[in-house]
Amino acid sequence: MVLGLLLIFSYFSTIAISLNKFHRAIYNNDEILIKETIDFLELKKSLKDNLNIIMMTELNKEKDNSQSLNILAAGLASKFTEIIIDSYATAAGISALIKDSDYKKLPQPNMLKSYVFIKDVSFVDLSHIYFVYEKDQNKIPIHFKRNGTSWKLSEFKITDDLLKKLKGK
Q1: Which tens digits make up the pLDDT trace of 88-102?
Q2: Could you give the CA distance from residue 137 to residue 164 in angstroms, rounded to a whole number?
Q3: In this predicted structure, what is the pLDDT of residue 91?
Q4: pLDDT one-digit tens code per residue, 15-68
């Protein structure tokens, strides 16, 4: 019984410590911590998949263009997206994005609050969690996957709300 409780506490501690480390990385715009808290291979794959689906959906809505023109446009857009993501989905790229944002409006990182924050985390399975970040009425699911005893940002979903805002609708 005690061993089971200790294992559960240890498991949740790995989540709290990793989320706190990620929060510190963003709050302090620390490129070293950013590298340690983000799985860039998974993040890039997720972003590429998300954007390719969005582009294909938008192209399929265009009834005026021919099928071959849509295929050509999709191929070019996919390659362009890949180049941009590979260039900017890096620790330096994220650091530059953070510099241009209002990240200092975030609350200061606090280990105790990281434990409390776990109540807002949803579990996909024992190695995959996510929470929904809300800003300006936009909801962005942010996913973390476990790697040993640490958790790393692996993807975030581009939701319809966020897409509409990016399009200016």
Answers
A1: 889 998 888 788 777
A2: 12
A3: 92
A4: 999 999 999 999 999 999 999 999 999 999 998 888 877 777 776 676 666 666
CB 139 within 8 A of CB 158: no
Q: How far apart are alpha carbons 58 and 155 in whole angstroms?
A: 22
- Helix/strand/coil (H/E/C) assignment for every residue in the chain: CHHHHHHHHHHHHHHHHHHHHHHHHHHCCCHHHHHHHECHHHHHHHHHHHHHHHHHHHHHHCCCCCHHHHHHHHHHHHHHHHHHHHHHCCHHHHHHHHHCCCHHHCCCCCHHHHHHHHHHCEEEECCEEEEEEEECCEEEEEEEEEECCEEEEEEECCCHHHHHHHHCC
- Give the structural domain span for 52: 2-167
The tally of domains found in the chain comes to 1
Q: State the Cα–Cα distance between residues 89 and 48, nearest whole angstrom.
A: 11
pTM (predicted TM-score): 0.81
